[in-house]
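User: Could you go from structure to sequence for me? I need the amino acid at each position, not a summary. Structure tokens:
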């Protein structure tokens, strides 16, 4: 039995100023294209099921174009009779129930199962004489609703396979947060090992959380924190043994070049460094960022940015992010005070993992005292 797991397609997302020949936002089109590639793969490989783990749309009120693309692509799946289960994520779920959920438009499409009603739902399928139950929790109105739903989730022991779909930040050793205001948190213990598979959405990097739980990641890179990541979806083979493959799609290269540390460089050195970085990137049709760290403001003002812009002309987007130090400003956090050398030494020593600290402390303090009394002319 073959299943595809996709998430975070963010249809309707747009960014930067670059337009296509038809005057549309290039990134918006890129995002549509990424989703289309996922559907192309499905139409070609004919999985038994396709799961979308939330954030199909980028917003609560998608544009007509975003809605049209979603319908067009989902209809292609529907025509192939590929069941498509989609849960709403934090991006498309309205904060107020009265607003109404855009997923309503999918209610009357054959083989499409939108889950967006604030509650835990199960959908049973019968595929190749096997019973498979999808357990799905959409984005909820409140954290309490969400947690109550998580409590209710229960494996169907009469099913051959149980799959859980949920959208949110799993918390545990590492937190898979996106730092968005309405994100929901999934405790690791909610991802029971009894599930044959857990299809997660929300975190944009493809991640294996545990043997049976995966984030497929977003279908396109949306911010520079996604830069350099592979984008795509997961293909799952459910049999006695479960096999997962990450299917990479082709997306526009997004590059976050390693930062240039500037405080001890001249204008010429910095410009040379930037030019070299741009040359290596080969800007045409790409998105990239160069970061200038700790650059003194007088040096920053001396850089000819027009010349740099000229070199990056073919790029879909480029930016230089500068962390400028104002003259006379100390690069130290405000509440950090240097104490006497003796007490700084004592603090330093405490943090070290070495034997004989007592002896070293006594010796060190003794030397410091000797030097300090010399300075004072004693
Ligand atoms: Mn999300």
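Assistant: Here is the amino acid at each position, in order:
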């Amino acid at each position: 039995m073959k299943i595809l797991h996709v998430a975070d397609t963010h249809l309707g997302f747009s960014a930067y100023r670059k337009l296509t020949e038809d005057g549309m936002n290039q990134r918006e089109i890129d995002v549509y294209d990424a989703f289309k590639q996922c559907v192309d793969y499905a139409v070609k490989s004919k999985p038994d099921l396709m799961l979308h783990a939330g954030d199909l749309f980028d917003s609560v009120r998608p544009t007509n174009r975003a809605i049209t693309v979603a319908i067009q692509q989902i209809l292609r799946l529907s025509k192939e009779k590929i069941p498509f289960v989609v849960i709403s994520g934090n991006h498309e779920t309205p904060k107020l129930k009265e607003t109404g959920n855009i997923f309503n438009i999918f209610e009357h499409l054959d083989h499409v199962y939108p889950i967006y009603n604030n509650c835990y739902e199960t959908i049973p399928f019968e595929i190749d004489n096997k019973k498979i139950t999808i357990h799905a929790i959409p984005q909820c109105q409140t954290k309490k609703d969400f947690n109550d739903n998580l409590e209710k989730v229960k494996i169907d022991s009469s099913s051959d396979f149980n799959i859980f779909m949920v959208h949110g930040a799993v918390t545990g050793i590492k937190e898979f947060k996106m730092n968005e205001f309405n994100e929901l948190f999934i405790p690791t213990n909610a991802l029971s090992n009894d599930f044959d598979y857990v299809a997660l959405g929300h975190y944009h990097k493809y991640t294996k959380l545990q043997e049976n739980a995966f984030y497929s990641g977003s279908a396109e890179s949306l911010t520079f924190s996604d830069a350099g990541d592979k984008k795509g979806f997961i293909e799952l083979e459910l049999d006695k043994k479960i096999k997962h493959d990450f299917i990479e799609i082709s997306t526009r290269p997004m590059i976050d070049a390693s930062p240039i540390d500037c405080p001890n460089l001249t204008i010429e050195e910095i410009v040379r460094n930037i030019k070299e970085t741009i040359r290596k990137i080969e800007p045409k049709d790409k998105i990239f960022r160069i970061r200038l760290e700790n650059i003194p403001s007088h040096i920053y003002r001396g850089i000819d940015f027009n010349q740099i812009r000229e070199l990056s002309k073919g790029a879909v987007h480029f930016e230089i992010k500068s962390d400028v130090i104002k003259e006379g400003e100390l690069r130290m956090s405000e509440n950090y005070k240097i104490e006497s050398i003796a007490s700084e030494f004592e603090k330093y020593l405490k943090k070290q993992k070495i034997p004989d600290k007592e002896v070293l402390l006594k010796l060190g303090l003794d030397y410091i005292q000797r030097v300090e009394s010399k300075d004072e002319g004693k």
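One structural detail worth keeping in mind: The longest helix spans residues 26-45.
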